[in-house]
Amino acid sequence: MTTDLDQLRADLLGSIDAAAGLEAIEALRVHALGKQGAITGLLKTLGGMSPEERQETGPRIHGLREAVTEALGARKAALERLAMDARLASETLDMTLPADGITTGSVHPVSQVMDELAEIFADLGFAVASGPEIEDDWHNFTALNIPDTHPARAMHDTFYMSPSPRLRGASGEDSPRLSSDRAGRDRPDAGRGEGQSASGDSLADMPLSPALSPEGEREQKKMLLRTHTSPVQIRAMKATGGNAPLRIIAPGRTYRSDSDATHTPMFHQVEGLVIDKGITLGHLKWTLETFLKAFFERDDVVLRLRPSYFPFTEPGAEVDVGYSLVNGKRVIGGSEGWMEVLGSGMVHRSVIAAGGYDPDQWQGFAFGCGIDRLAMLKYGMDDLRAFFDGDIRWLKHYGFSALDVPTLSGGVGA
Ligand code: PHE
User: Fold this and answer.
1) Taking the C-alpha atoms of 337, 342, 345 and 348 in order, what is their torsion angle to the nearest 10 degrees?
2) What is the DSSP letter of 197?
3) Which atom, in ligand 1's list, is nearest to the CA of 197?
4) Are residues 349 and 213 in the same domain?
5) pLDDT single digits (tens) 114-153
6) Which of 55, 89, 123 is the last residue of a domain?
7) Atom 10 (ligand 1): residue with closest C-alpha?
8) Residue 118: which CATH number?
């Protein structure tokens, strides 16, 4: 018995030591300690032994069981450690590698500039107003004192909608569509937002104004794609009922029949309007100066107001911003040269009246400015058409992070 036990112990401990894997360990455990196991079998024999024999053999069998249990545990732990070491060696993860990029969109420079404008003007107490892009002739032209003979009313400057069946009667085409007699025309006026003027066409070139037809009233309801944001002046004034001060900006899309590197058929403007009592040209100048300094983030912005004609202003002025030449590049600030950035003026009496205010009591100033042009000047882009091409590479380069929210304290340019 003694030698049997010693032999069994040596065999078991040897096998355990040599076990190459967790499965072998488990097999050995069952073999020794399982229900039919060798040690279990020996323990069962204790019951049939004489007390003396049991006293002698019992502790040895128990000792064997303990030794085998312990050896199994130790070998199992060692094998698990080896397995872990092997995994650690093979499954390396280099935390210093750059993570896969997440594709994120970016904020279009036009949207960014609109946000910047809203931020700057909010600080001056201006609310943001809006109006429809499909506008009627009255709001876009008539209420703004734009005469029937003005070139901006011509078909080749403005996209008109075909009359709706309701207004048209039985004849004519059946669906609204855009009409313009000539797209892509060269127009000599430099930037957008500087007036309906300078069509460059001779009067003989213009069609007879349809507004002069006997169906005058019907013509007043003629629909078009607004050619500027100025109709929002009228809508905002009407909305107050004509008896409250008003301070708004109205950024949005505008449309003219034009297309080249600095003109696209759709472009963006921001309108500004202040109506109050005792408003003067001084308020206009201060507001524009404050706005342009904040926008270009420079204190040395110099403005030049040039007398100009907009039917809806009296007097009217075009505003130039001074620039300096730095390494042959134009940089806003100083006064080596001048760039036109916007149209402005005191609101014409008849426009104040069309807005429902008494022009003897209320005065105001207004300005209109091309947003795309502002963006180009500030962020150094040179082809306006790229703004609307939807080229993802251009947007990646010129776009803004969605988290770059413009703030006055943080710098509106973000
Ligand atoms: N509406 C004018 C334009 O489109 C700009 C402007 C607005 C001028 C307000 C004066 C006052 O060019």
Assistant:
1) 150
2) -
3) 12
4) yes
5) 999 999 999 999 999 999 999 999 999 999 999 888 888 9
6) 89
7) 344
8) 3.30.930.10
